[in-house]
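Priority: low. Protein: L-lactate dehydrogenase complex protein LldF. Input follows.
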Amino acid sequence: MSETTHGSSHHSAHHIDVKEFHPRARAAIHNPQVRQNFRKAMDGLMTKRKSAFEGWDLETLRDLGANIRMRALASLPDLLEQLEQKLTENGITVHWATDGDEACRIVRDICVARDAKTAIKGKSMVSEEMELNHYLEEQGIEALESDLGEYIVQLAEETPSHIIMPAIHKNTGEISQLLHDKTGTDLSNDVEYLTANARLQLREKFRNADVGISGVNFAVAETGTLCLVENEGNGRMTTTVPPCHIAVTGIEKVVPNLEDVTALLALLTRSATGQHITTYFNMISGPRKANEMDGPEEVHVVLVDNGRSTIYQDDELLDTLRCIRCGACMNHCPVYTRVGGHTYGTTYPGPIGKILMPHMVGLDEGRHLPTASSLCGACGEVCPVKIPIPDLLVRLRQESVDGDKLHPAKVRGHGAKRSSVEAMIWKGWSWMHARPGLYRLGTSLGARFRKLQPGKIGAWTQYRTAPKLAPKTLHERMKERGQ
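Result:
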């Protein structure tokens, strides 16, 4: 795992220590409300996904999606240049950002140039990655989330717990109490009432915002088109009502042509929320023209690297960049389902976060992430673009202990993490298992003196019973049976 840049160096009060995974996991496991909220939500999403693909040749579609993403990544540098050219021809200003800090400064400079004091935001995980909201607040620019889930999370002064459904960790009662405390709405479990009140609160913000900020689901190189997938209409409002629209996106979101979007869209919506298609699919190809009635006067695109080009140089870890941010791997992950997104302390939680975030925060800080998995393989089975997540987890696990043997010169402050005692134990284990006679003798002695075995074996027996050795080995039993 090669060296990467940190996301953003401006750490706010919202920043969570990545290294505190285990204490947070224990707290989540012992919080019945959190477990109930996630279990109910994840079960519903898994059921919806399954029914949404009924009648489809899912494996063929997944192969198509994987091939589209791999083909795009194979020619990523050329596609990015083509995208920049087409966007520029369409009247869109293109900016390049090496990391989150630079991307934040670019957004700030655009706001300052327009004397903008308020920004309304559509949903964008890259902006979360950049910690853009907190940066803009420090600069005296109000940034308000308009996605209902993100709005709730922002009111609660929390971070999203899921990349598709940011407030999935809260139930209706908790959301009602939050809206009552923060905005004065009546306490109610009527979802329509709560949603309508949030809509009223946000509508004026859309009308008066100086700048609209959004993410991008797919950027089409051939036509210079930005595609946004959403359900609430807030994305369309964010990108059309304010006089200036700023789209921020990772450099990996580019695809060659519009035809590629169709298969990826079919996979994304069904994998994410179990919908055949979302309520809104926005295609943005430029600012408002002279003969048009609505739309922004200016459109800017900020193409964010933030460690992606380093990932791109690794033939194996490159697969991480295929991700279309559907969240299906989280919905099916037994670990994520039990501990929730905030436990990870990262922008991207769950299986995709375990393989993506070590690139962004460094494997030293995020070394617990690849181990937060049972390696059941569910994430790999449901990934719509067939990212081999379990294989990458194993690769990162090995690097977190042994150091990066593929890129030793590029590693930032992490080498072998295994203690000398642990290294000796594993060498002894390997040596004995390579010698059948010694192995048989060792297992035989272990069976004979099993009562001397310790009742506790480190962390393994913290939640499990220590394994009991059989009184006789399999070979001894087979000999007794004359086989």
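The longest strand covers residues 244-250. The longest helix spans residues 32-52.
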